[in-house]
Automatic annotation (TrEMBL):
Sequence ranges assigned to domain Exonuclease VII large subunit C-terminal in this UniProt record: 138-473
Family per record: Belongs to the XseA family.
Main location per the UniProt record: cytoplasm
Enzyme Commission number: 3.1.11.6
Coiled-coil stretches noted in the UniProt entry, renumbered to this chain: none
A biological process from GO: DNA catabolic process
Official protein name in the record: Exodeoxyribonuclease 7 large subunit
GO cellular component, one term: cytoplasm
Domain of life: Bacteria
Length: 488
């Protein structure tokens, strides 16, 4: 239950007492802190979150404000340092604690000392360089031999960076016609995520390192604060561990970043990096041309000497060939003469041998022919005798056969003559004249022989042939007889 006797204050009364207390004890003090966050509003006030770190751990934290009436110190900071107030910058400022019942505790910043931030950044960079040196990274990338000619180039930059376009313009538009292969590994080169983005780009380059002769880090200028990202330890270590040479062309002239220190070579601008690569190609081409001229000169000298040697050798060779030719011809003549004589001897010998063979062959042939002739004569005689004997036998046989045949023919002819005589006699006896002569007659009707009384009509005129003379008669009567003729 609420105790009505307790003395109390309202929140505003209590906070007002605290406000008065803080105002009594508070005075302007120089304070060092790191900016964790900063924003500005339309009224020109800067609202800042301040922190203090120890071993990367926040040990103190509060809000601060730069009222618009004091904004001149912000502009002065930029003019003196070349960088905007931003996250990560440690500042020394003159400030005073304030408290408001509604808005709470804040430090009102009256003045910022730019020389402290510059010194702080330089100190931080120095510590980073010392650490990299201790760990052996500061010159590690410098130990990698730079290729004689750099043609395959990995570029770590932002595509929108002005330095990137300048870099490509010099390489791609070179008047010598050299060809360069470039590949952009896009990354943020400013802002809170720049370091992580650049490290990721370098890691992608390392994965494809075998495809490149060098990696070029390009930005294109900026304030000291903008370039502070290139003093980051992890980024510098990543660059130092690259397996190919790293060149920087960040675009600053007043100072050297840690990235420049660990790079194999650093240049003030991206254009200077491109010119270095181009000059290296030109120098290589010039050396090649010089080498080519030297080779041509030496080759010409060598050829001149060799031609002279060859001409001498050729003359000696021709003389040697000529002498050898004459010797060979002499030997060949001797050989030909010797061969000719041997051939003649051989031919003579062969002729004699052939003559002897011919004589012997002639004799043997004659003997053989004589013997064959005698033998043939004997055979011929024997054949003739045999033929005569056969002919005699055949003639005798033919004569005997002829006589026998003649006798047989004669007998046959005699027999046939007798038979013919008998037939002639029969024919003579059967002739119509002899028949008519024996008292028979032939009756004609209309010129045809009449053989049947049935063929003649009554009162027909018929003719009767007698042996001597003819008779014409008229049929007055007739008898027909269909049986056989019976004359008697």
């Amino acid at each position: 239950m609420f105790n009505v006797d307790v003395t109390y204050q309202t929140l505003s009364q209590y906070l007002n007492e605290i406000k008065e207390l803080i105002q009594e004890i508070s005075d302007y003090q120089w304070i060092v802190a790191e900016i964790a966050k900063i924003d500005s509003d339309k009224n020109g006030h800067y609202w800042i979150e301040l922190v203090e770190k120890k071993d990367n751990e926040i040990v103190a934290k509060c809000d601060a404000v730069v009222w618009s009436r004091n904004v001149e110190t912000v502009h002065n900071f930029y003019l003196k340092t070349g960088m905007e107030l931003q996250k990560g910058i440690k500042i020394l400022f003159l400030g005073k604690a304030t408290f408001h019942e509604k808005y709470g505790f804040k430090i009102s910043i009256y003045q910022i000392d730019p020389s402290f931030s510059l010194g702080e950044m330089a100190l931080k960079k120095k510590e980073t360089i010392e650490r990299l040196t201790r760990e052996g990274f500061i010159d590690r990338n410098k130990l990698i031999e730079i290729p004689v000619i750099i043609q395959r180039i990995a570029i770590v930059s932002s595509e929108s960076a002005a330095g990137y376009e300048d870099f490509l313009k010099i390489l791609k538009g070179n008047k010598y016609g050299f060809k360069f292969y470039t590949k952009l590994f896009d990354a943020f080169v400013q802002g809170d995520s720049a370091v992580a983005s650049l490290m990721a780009a370098f890691q992608r380059c390392a994965f494809e390192a075998k495809n490149f002769d060098a990696v070029v880090l390009i930005r294109g200028g900026g304030s000291v604060a903008d370039l502070a990202i290139f003093n980051d330890y992890e980024l510098a270590k990543t660059m130092a561990l690259m397996p190919v040479p790293v060149f920087t062309g960040i675009g600053h002239t007043r100072d050297e970043t840690v990235a420049d220190r660990v790079a194999s070579m650093s240049f003030k601008t991206p254009s200077e990096v491109a010119k270095f690569i181009l000059d290296r190609a030109v120098d290589f081409d010039s050396r090649l041309d010089t080498l080519r001229q030297r080779i041509i000169h030496r080759a010409e000298n060598f050829l001149s000497v060799e031609i002279s040697k060859n001409q001498s050798i050729e003359e000696r060779f021709k003389l040697a060939v000529k002498n050898s030719r004459e010797k060979i011809l002499q030997k060949m003549n001797l050989i030909v003469s010797e061969v000719h004589n041997n051939v003649l001897k051989r031919v003579h010998s062969e002729r004699e041998f052939l003559f002897k063979v011919k004589q012997q062959l002639y004799k043997k042939t004659n003997l053989i022919l004589t013997a064959q002739e005698v033998e043939l004569t004997n055979i011929n005689n024997k054949v003739k005798m045999k033929i005569n004997e056969n002919m005699a036998k055949q003639n005798f046989r033919i004569s005997s056969y002829k006589d026998s045949l003649f006798t047989k023919l004669k007998n046959t002819l005699s027999l046939k003559n007798i038979q013919i005589e008998r037939v002639n006699e029969k024919l003579r006896l059967l002739s119509p004249e002899n028949i008519l002569k024996r008292g028979y007659s032939i009756t004609y009707l209309n010129g045809k022989v009449l053989k049947n009384s049935g063929e003649v009509p009554l009162r027909a005129n018929i003719q009767i042939q007698l042996y001597k003379g003819k008779i014409s008669a008229t049929v007055t009567n007739k008898e027909e007889n269909n049986g056989e003729l019976k004359l008697f």
